[in-house]
Fold:
Amino acid sequence: MDDEVYSAAIWLAVGMTCSDSAASTQSAEDLVDMITSVVPTEARSIRQDALGAVPELRAALVHILVNGSDYGRYWGCIALSYLLHCNPSNIRLFGMETEGLFEAIAECLTIHMARGVACGVLSQLAFACVENSTRICDTSNILDLVARTMRHGRPMDQHAASCALSNIAANGSTLALKIADFPDLLEALADLCVEYRSVEGDGTTSRTGMSAIGCIDNLSFHEEVRPLLLQLGIPMMLKPLMEGEDFG
Structure:
């Protein structure tokens, strides 16, 4: 590992764990800058690998997600998202070798300004990773808080929440059934599916509805889940979508 990158990672870790909330938040922002300042995709991947391999930095991110100010938690989630983006190595390092991460993300799901980016982190952790998806489903309150985000969040937050569930459902019927065991999740998804017809000026609601439709599709792929969808009347709720409507 590059000594300069390692030293910077340790310095940022110290900053994120300090008692000064403004300073810890700034350290999280500086971490984001350290990742995004690398432009070529291959070089950015190398930077992600180098930073993710520093256990002190991973622990510091957990710390700020639990103990930071609302802004600190928001920027901590943003930094984590950049470290995970399209990086299977970091997805596994953070998900499987970073103590307390999922409980920390659950904390962020209770913060209004952070819950959308926290759902985005869950989506990336779950991508093509059964182990992380299982930890998400088995961590106390996460699915309840995701359901709350879909009910009461901003369109961009709802979009991130449905994407997280979709990635989990794509990892097998056992995980899809864990989602289906939360009727409020399924009902919230069905409600979002029809919202694509109420398109905001920037198309946000349309994207939200489409991501929810994709999640229902991933869930219905599994035969074991289909009876639960029928029992809750999800197909009937989605019937208007099949009666000559465009999908955005």
User: Anything to note?
Assistant: The chain has a mean pLDDT of 91. The radius of gyration is 19 Å. The longest helix spans residues 204-220.
